[in-house]
Amino acid sequence: MDWLDGSQSIPAACEVVMLLAIHQPNFMPWAGFFHKWMISDAMLLLDTVQYEKNEWQNRNRIKTAHGVQWMTVPVNYRYPQTIREVGIADRRWPRKLSISIEQAYAKAPYIGDYWPELRKVMHEPYDLLRDLNAALIRVLGGFLGCSAPLYMASDLGVENTDPTGRLLELCDALKADAYLSGQEGRVYLDRDVFASRGISLYFQAVEAPVYPQLYGAFASHLSVLDMLLNVGPEAAALVRNMGDKTA
């Protein structure tokens, strides 16, 4: 898949700050992923790191009449494959998952507005998990009004495997002079190293929004799909108002 097409060319160097967010291409991510995209000037999907079993790359959570449940894409994975190498294992999974989602959200007020397009994407014959996830992320981001360019790390030719070195080179590749990390980055990112390369370092600070849901008590940190199907157009403002970036 060619991510760096004519509409998303690498930006030219400029004097204004270009804030880059980087995140793994997870399966139908939670709202915080899209908040990071919203407050950045570009979003990079990091598909060149090692795939992690039982994490968020091939699964996420929805709320059903029986409580919170996982929705999972079956994969073919052999250690130490990177995310971009992991294939989808079973062609039957879209039908099974579609049935589960349609049963869980049959009474959600906005299922007719958003689900048909997502269902169509899910049923496309993707071979790679990365491509499926990226396609769903694009559609979900479009629903939420995310407009910053979306890039794929594997298209940039950065081979550095050192975690900090990789981030710096990815920033350089996209002419970014500011990097937006999650809060966990405070533990391991060296601000002085970034400053020595002329890159400002920011951290995303968010609180999960509360919104009307089906099936009783509120459940937090679900796939953003739950929010969209329950509150529709209000989801964009809920995501944007989750927080901000801090130095």
Write a concise synopsis of the structure shown.
The chain has 9 helices and 10 strands. It has helices at 31-38, 93-104, 111-122, 129-144, 163-173, 185-188, 191-196, 224-231, 234-240; strands spanning 19-23, 42-45, 59-64, 67-72, 75-76, 87-88, 150-152, 178-181, 200-206, 243-246.
Account of the 3D structure:
With 247 residues, the protein is α/β, with parallel strands linked by helices. The protein has one domain. Helices cover 34% and strands 17% of the residues. The chain contains 9 helices and 10 strands. The protein has helices spanning 31-38, 93-104, 111-122, 129-144, 163-173, 185-188, 191-196, 224-231, 234-240; strands at 19-23, 42-45, 59-64, 67-72, 75-76, 87-88, 150-152, 178-181, 200-206, 243-246. A 6-stranded mixed β-sheet has the order 7-2-1-8-9-10. β3 (59-64) and β4 (67-72) form a beta hairpin.
H/E series, N to C? EHEEEEEHHHEHEHHEHHE
Number of strands: 10
Strand order in the sheet with the most strands: 7-2-1-8-9-10
Shape: globular
* Radius of gyration from the alpha-carbon trace, in angstroms: 18 Å
The biggest sheet amounts to:
6 strands, mixed
Spans with pLDDT under 50 lasting ≥5 residues? none
Distance between the termini: 35 Å
What is the averaged pLDDT score? 94
Per DSSP, the total helix count is 9
Q: What structural category arises from helix and sheet content?
A: alpha/beta
Integer tally of domains? 1
Strand content: 15-25%
Q: Share of helix among residues? A: 25-40%
